[in-house]
Amino acid sequence: MAWMHEGSLEGEGLRIAIVVSRFNGFITERLVEGALDCLERHGVNTDDIDIFKTPGAWEIPAVASRVLLAGGFDAVICLGAVIRGDTPHFEYVAAESAKGIAALAAEADVPVVYGIITADSVEQAVDRAGAKSGNRGFDAAMSALEMAGLYRFLSGDGEDDGQDSEADAATRES
Ligand code: INI
Predict the structure, then answer these.
(1) Pocket flag, ligand 1, residue 59 (CB < 6 Å)
(2) 166 vs 41, more confident
């Protein structure tokens, strides 16, 4: 039998940073709306959410890195939209923003989640920003909440008694 740990989705008391790019703002604004909807539905106080805006997705890792240095947040949610065809450097912007966020996420003490849409067309991006295929901002916020719960347990703030706790739902799996 093994102990299984999953972060809870409880948002009460969490302080959340959102780093979002203005490029393709008609998409990224919807991602922010989705993220706020998720956070508020799960108990995060609106006053405990800070939104940092960047010109484009390229700048997101640099700003997220400084948000982490500033400290005080339980999770950082990165939101952006990179659409193929807008410029020839789609690949660079998409790849470098993803790599930068992944590098931060691997090292940071709090979760840094990736909510950047990379789409082949505007239509595809719209679909993923609340039209046909859900809202990637909402999804990223869900991941942030779950990961924040898991990190809290792993940092020793949670209880490891095998019972459900605020920070950790642990169950015996046979
Ligand atoms: N930034 C985006 O967020 N999405 C894009 O689709 C995009 N394209 O295609 O060019 C984009 N470029 C701007 C980039 O993120 C930087 O802001 C710019 O290069 C200045 O550093």
Answers:
(1) yes
(2) 41
